[in-house]
Specification:
Layout (H helix, E strand, L loop, with lengths): L4 H12 L3 E6 L4 H4 L4 E3 L1 H9 L6 E5 L2 H10 L5 E3 L15 H15 L9 E8 L4 H9 L3 E3 L4 H11 E7 L2 H10 L9 E2 L10 H6 L2 E4 L11 H10 L4 E4 L5 H6 L2 E2 L2 H10 L5 E5 L2 H10 L4 E4 L15 H12 L11 H16 L3
Parallel strand pairs: 1-2, 1-3, 3-4, 5-6, 5-7, 7-9, 8-9, 10-11, 10-12, 12-13
Helix pairs in contact: 1-14, 3-4, 6-15
The structure holds 1,3-dihydroxyacetonephosphate (13P) and iron/sulfur cluster.
1,3-dihydroxyacetonephosphate binds next to helix 3.
Length: about 350
């Protein structure tokens, strides 16, 4: 029993009609997802906001950086609402504008600021979508770009056409896994740690660097390990192991495939009935896939549950509260990015949306 929440949400949605659109990330719990008008990965949700649905309010069931992005891409006069303002992302918090600027200065000292003979600048900054609007703005201002887990290779190609090197933040794993798959050797990927700078990286590695990683990670995907994959293969011969590229490199290497949440969904929908999947991503998504596709065997690699605790902060009670606010004409928990930040951040976002695979 949800104490009447479902009825309250349905009543508010009915009263609002087309005035509201609810977007939901795949990691949201079922009790929230069932009210979403559109469900997707972070790239698809950014596009959904950019499509400027004919609604005065977009209620974003996801985390803070996604709602910021939706605000920057949505139409004028459209408000974006995050049902619980405490729904952040611990990875996004691992890089801030001060520490990225400090790193940037170090890179200018190391590599200078002049383009090479082919016109490529010394460093292109690439921020993962999982970052604050201020960091997207930094990228927009410094010739850089945004990526998501579904287009990271396309974006790195874009960056290597324009730069000799890439500074990739905040997720070291997505950066390393993507660059490695593109053929960048590991010894050309030094890592910057905002607390200990280069942390003893030798000069040669810095000189030859192609991708400078940032010491950030996702606490959910960090939990997966190779032992879990070996166990799944022993128990289910023929199992297809698919993990999210936020997982550490040995996990991605041991898996059959790595891809974004939408990639995982598409792999499952395209598989012949009776397939077995071991998935390395957030538990709410995996459990939902298992329920939606009973013709397959689908389980999460982590036997102890691994929810994203901040995604989980979007409780249906908050959804009911913000929707009922809209019915009364009140916009609660609005996410607004100031234009001074949004203008350069949009430049970096639009570069990503325009980059073709
Ligand atoms: P995608 O939806 O892009 O796969 O990202 C997963 C994630 O961690 C979002 O926070
Ligand atoms: Fe952030 Fe990881 Fe949660 Fe995604 S799953 S929102 S990266 S903490």
């Amino acid at each position: 029993d949800d104490g009447g929440l479902e009825d309250r949400i349905l009543a508010a949605k009915a009263a609002l009609g087309d005035r509201v659109v609810i977007l939901g990330h795949f990691y949201q719990r079922d009790e929230v997802i069932k009210f979403a008008d559109f469900v997707g990965d972070s790239f698809q949700l950014a596009n959904a906001a950019k499509a400027k649905p004919a609604a005065e309010a977009i209620v974003f069931c996801g985390v803070h950086f996604m709602a910021e992005t939706a605000d920057m891409l949505s139409g004028p006069g459209q408000s974006v609402i995050l049902p619980n303002l405490a729904a952040g992302c611990s990875m996004a918090d691992m890089a801030d504008i001060e520490s990225v600027s400090a790193c940037w200065e170090q890179l200018a000292e190391l590599y200078g600021t002049e383009p090479d003979a082919q016109g490529r600048v010394p460093v292109i900054p690439v921020t993962y979508m999982n970052s604050s609007a201020a960091l997207k703005a930094f990228c927009g201002e410094h010739g850089g770009i945004v990526c998501t887990s579904s287009n990271a290779a396309t974006v790195l190609d874009w960056a290597f056409e324009r730069g000799q090197r890439v500074l990739f933040f905040p997720d070291q794993h997505l950066g390393r896994n993507t660059a490695k798959a593109m053929g960048v050797p590991l010894d050309q990927m030094p890592m910057w740690n905002p607390r200990q700078a280069w942390g003893g990286t030798d000069e040669r590695t810095l000189r030859d660097a192609r991708v400078i990683l940032w010491h950030g990670f996702c606490s959910v995907h960090k939990r997966f390990n190779v032992g879990q994959i070996e166990k799944a293969r022993a128990e289910f011969p023929g199992v297809r192991v698919i993990v999210h590229p936020e997982c550490p490199m040995p996990v991605v290497d041991a898996a059959d495939e790595a891809g974004s949440t939408d990639y995982i969904l598409k792999a499952i929908t395209a598989a012949p009935a009776g397939s077995t999947f071991a998935i390395g991503t957030e538990i709410n998504m995996v459990n939902r896939l298992a329920a939606q596709y009973p013709q397959h065997t689908i389980f999460c690699l982590d036997p102890v549950i691994c929810p994203c605790s901040t995604m989980y902060r979007i409780h249906p009670g908050y959804l009911a509260w913000v929707l009922e606010g809209l019915v009364r004409g009140e916009v609660l928990n609005q996410i607004t990015v100031p234009e001074a930040t949004a203008i350069p951040a949009r430049v970096a976002l639009e570069r990503m949306l325009a980059a073709k695979p």
